[in-house]
Specification:
heterodimer; A: alpha/beta; Rossmann fold; five-stranded parallel sheet; 11 helices; B: alpha/beta; 4 helices; globular
């Protein structure tokens, strides 16, 4: 494993190994000394050509806990806003000796392009590319689900997970469907037909248009953000109608199984896809997802950067 | 390949080490055994069992993974992490005894000291080892040694334990030069 671009590149064994590594990293984060010397002297660049709070600071915290040097680079306030191409940016980073680039970009495939090109030699980590994938988010979601629901198993076999909302624009949904299915879970996408992408029938999941019929049988329900910034046409008649049919409210929380959990990748539109009492209730693991994100990203950085990839991976 | 330590000798060595640990620390109340995965962890568990039989009280025992503190990470392919479990009383102000199977360059133990420092500040740190094969690269020595086995640098020492390998034995491979 040299890059982390797509869940498709991971085998089940590799995915489980990332989750296991993250579990050990979580122990470090819980301890009194939150710093390890493991990546001392490595330089990691956060190249964020699109806005982000959680993912960027999560990667930054992960890199710093492993003692790597972090350079933050965002579109605003850099030459990207002057129209510099990805190639020129990458070559600049290469010249500065970046060992890894964490890239978020509005164009699907930007991370793949960076990894396949000869522009730079370091590892590339996809932190969200357009509406394509967001693999580290899926890994942290799988980690959170495994921690709460797998009862000691290393995978997610037998669990039913609903992913609800704006699947069309969601790279989180795509990565999660691929990963959760790979780990043995049964995934159900719940959305209005207008918010499902073309070709969704070929994904390893089932599809429903009725949240109420699905919610009683699932172990975890993952709400997706309605991505208002990507919505330039009308996908549903009104926000109120969407909330009524596809929002998570306290009535639907009551319909859940007793040990089921509520997830959201953030940022939330409170009152639209999820009500405040659902988001802050006892079932919600939304804040914990953020903490787990740091552990997962430490694991990914460790596995990509600590060893010598040329010798061959044991992973 | 030659057998240098058969099963009965391993068991006698562990029993002797257990007695030496008790003698040096005046009993088991202040000690915490931490085994270095994978085989050191099993040896620590065995020593803890022997000690708890002698003293008739349970012994604090856990595991300490040192992978993240190794100085040779960049020279090898990525390694999987092993679990670290610190027993209930922690390491603060305890007499911590690190347990490993083979003492060679001393680099594993250096990493273990760093890993331990991140968890707390023990009163003392001692080292118990099943086989000391020499060729130290750092100023580190063991307090309790199962057997000193002089080796040539080109030879390799393999420890098998029943928990993982279905047999207890220590083997040496290669020719002494």
């Amino acid at each position: 494993m040299k890059h982390l671009l797509s869940i498709n590149d991971l085998s089940k064994i590799e995915a489980v190994s990332i989750l296991d590594t993250a579990q050990e990293m979580a122990r470090v984060s819980d301890g009194p000394m939150k710093k390890l010397p493991t990546l001392r002297g490595r330089t990691i660049v956060n190249l964020f050509a699109e806005d982000s709070t959680r993912t960027r600071i999560s990667f930054e915290a992960a890199a710093k806990r492993l003692s790597a040097d972090v350079i933050n680079f965002s579109a605003k306030g850099s030459s990207i806003s002057k129209g510099e191409s990805l190639k020129d940016t990458a070559q600049t980073l290469q010249a500065m000796g970046a060992d890894a680039v964490i890239i978020r970009h509005s164009a699907s495939g930007a991370a793949q392009r960076l990894a396949d090109s000869q522009w730079m030699s370091g590892a590339v980590i996809n932190a969200g590319d357009g509406t394509h994938e967001h693999p580290s988010q899926a890994l942290l979601d799988a980690f959170t689900i495994r921690k709460h629901l797998s009862k000691g198993a290393s995978d997610l076999a037998g669990l039913r997970i609903a992913i609800v909302g704006d699947v069309l624009h969601s790279r989180v949904a795509r990565s999660n469907v691929l990963l959760l299915a790979k780990l043995g879970a049964q995934v159900i996408l719940v959305a209005p037909p207008t918010l499902l992408p073309v070709g969704v029938e070929s994904w390893p999941c089932s599809i429903s248009y009725d949240l109420d019929s699905v919610i009683e049988g699932v172990d975890a329900v993952m709400m997706l953000r309605i991505q208002l910034e990507r919505m330039n046409e009308l996908f549903f008649p009104s926000a109120r109608e969407y909330s009524r049919y596809f929002g998570l409210n306290s009535d639907r929380i009551r319909a859940l199984k007793p040990d089921a959990i509520v997830m959201h990748p953030g940022p939330m539109n409170r009152g639209l896809e999820i009500t405040a009492d659902a988001a802050d209730g006892a079932r919600s693991v939304i804040v914990e997802q953020v903490a787990n994100g740091v552990s997962i990203r430490m694991a990914v950085l460790y596995l990509l950067l600590a060893g010598n990839q040329e010798i061959g991976a044991t992973l | 390949m030659s057998l240098v330590l058969p099963a009965p000798d391993i068991s006698r060595a562990l029993t002797r080490i257990s007695h030496e640990i008790l003698e040096k620390n005046s009993g088991s109340s202040t000690i915490t055994l931490l085994g270095i995965p994978t085989r050191g962890a099993h040896l620590a568990k065995r020593i803890a069992e022997i000690i708890s039989k002698i003293e008739a009280v349970p012994v604090q025992v856990g595991t300490l993974d040192i992978t993240l503190h190794r100085d040779d990470l960049r020279l090898r392919p990525p390694r999987a992490l092993m679990p670290t479990t610190i027993p209930s009383l922690g390491v603060e102000d305890r007499n911590v005894i690190l347990v490993d199977d083979v003492l060679f360059s001393g680099r594993t133990i250096r990493a273990a000291l760093d890993a331990l420092g991140e968890i707390g500040r023990p009163k003392t740190v001692q080292l118990a080892i099943l086989v000391d094969r020499g060729h130290r690269e750092l100023p580190i020595r063991a307090d309790y040694v199962g057997k000193n086995i002089p080796t040539s640098i080109t030879q390799s020492v393999t420890v098998h334990l029943t928990e993982l390998d279905s047999v207890d034995e220590v083997l040496i491979e290669g020719n002494p030069e």
